[in-house]
Fold Branched-chain amino acid ABC transporter permease.
Amino acid sequence: MKIMNKRTGLIALFVLAILFPLIFQNDYYTHMLTLSFIWAIAVYGINLLAGYTGYLSLAHAGFFAIGAYSLGLLTVKAEMNFWPALVLACLITSVVGLLIGVIALRTKEHFFAIYTLCVGYIIYLVIDKWDGLTGGVRGLIGINAPSNIGPITFETAESQYYLVLTFLVVVIFVIYRIVHSLTGRTFLAIRNSEELAQTIGISTMKNKLTAFVLSTFFAGLAGALYASFVRFIGPDIGSTAIMFDLLMYLLVGGIGTLSGPLVGTLMLVILSQNLQFLQEYRMLIFGPILTLIIIFYPRGISGSFFDWKRKRRNQTGNVLKPIKVEEG
């Protein structure tokens, strides 16, 4: 029954997502949700690493930018078709992630976070200063939209929405399969105790590197989709401000949960869009909110909801158990 309820809820959400552009027929809302889905893909990448292995990378805005610029350069300067350019952009990001991960994962805890923060900033500087390749502060203009697939075109806001939604669903399904596989249990073992994982024969370096490369792949995919959707990119997409936004989406939604990245991203993107008139005071608003959530709900919205359901189920189970009365 619980499996059926969960499956029914997921099907209902999926159907709602499909019907959303048809119900509201508002390009602004469709555009906002499409961007939210793209950011959610990047957040899922961070969550795979931080939530399931315990290694918090602060370089993923840089990997997001690598994916975006790779697709932009391949389609604008190399005049490549969108679909092979998308594949190459993800592979380029993964290769860079592999090279960085080999060095970064020799550090642990806050040293790893500091190292990746520096790497992310270096990526931002390279994009900003390499004027001949990236266009520098001018950025890249005129990035191609996704190419047609037979009779299917991606010129309207609705078609791009459905394309990004498809990628998001595939990413969630892939991460679900990873988390519930032997590889996912290995990631959790490393998160819980890396020393204990080593004693039982787990190759921690190999598995951490696998998680790191996969997470950069998803960040690169999100960046490439972002570039094709917005059609213009600048070095700011690799800045620490973007990294802060991605982390905020993850922490608010729930780190180490499958629904957390999507919940946090949708909630905060929609909230920030409705508070655009307070844009100058954005950090003053979100800063205290994030602090309170970390203090009182360290597992985020999704994690706290699942904890509440588990506690309620346990309490119900205890009530239904027969009470023994001691005689004496």
Q: What stands out?
A: The first helix runs from residue 2 to 24.
